[in-house]
Amino acid sequence: MLNPFRIAKRLRQIGLIGLGRRNAEFILTYNQRRYYPRVDDKLITKNLAIEAGLPVPELYAVVREEHEIRELHARIAHHEQFVVKPAHGSGGDGILVISGRRGDKYRRSNGNLMGREEFEHHLSNGLSGLFSLGGHPDHLLVEYCVQFDPIFDRVSYKGVPDVRIIVFFGYPVMAMIRLPTRLSDGKANLHQGAIGVGIDIPTGMTRRGVWGTEPVREHPDTEHSIVGLQIPHWDALLDMASRCYEVSQLGYIGVDFVLDRDRGPLILELNARPGLAIQIANGNGLLPRLRRIEALKADGALSSNPAERAAFARQHFATT
Fold it and tell me: Of 32, 65, 73, 220, which alpha carbon lies 20 to 30 A from 248's?
């Protein structure tokens, strides 16, 4: 039987932090509420990223009113594939991925066909706030459907993997890739059954993975190894993540990327309250890394140069 005291001691040794400590010492302390709209509204995030010269998926349409739902069919008629997402959604709720068409029906990423009435009902629910933070009325983004990099063909089930990097005052401190599974219905969402795989910051190589609470080294659906993958464009990802500090003006954020086979890295969204499972995926706690950046801040030594911040992360934050 596992000794709970031994487990607690081990967790303290690796510097694992829980939700309470994350919220009190980092989110409430370093994330000013007046900047939350920059990350809580995906349309604002997209526009700010574009202004900063950062790549994002192309925006096809914005739906704000019920009458615009019926008009949308004609507006996107020339797009075989696209994604609909609520501007204030969280945890992947309400995201609809259309991978093709058959007649006047839309084909979802899981292969199922969706009629126009069902499609319109889903969008209407999104406008009403069913998928949004706090349940408030929302608007919807219709955008380019990412075509994932072929390096992930053997370690992803149907959906698009994404890379999350935790950034503290512009310094990338921890990273993972989330791999869709059959259980997650092709979504890169850990709570729905995706795999979290830790990434070594200096090298961009995957080190270990977790599926729920189970350590894994192979994808449960494809049975291919998830360890030792070189994440493409790694240096660019670190640099872009670092630059998102200036975009968000928030001290502690998660930056989510996708890797498109044709367009390279694209920023999906920013998160002011990123989850903590990234620590389990890496087998390392966040606390020592966060304290190291706090020490720089206390000494007045925080860099204003994103490239320097990314270089610092590569030098100091290896996955052990």
Answer: 65
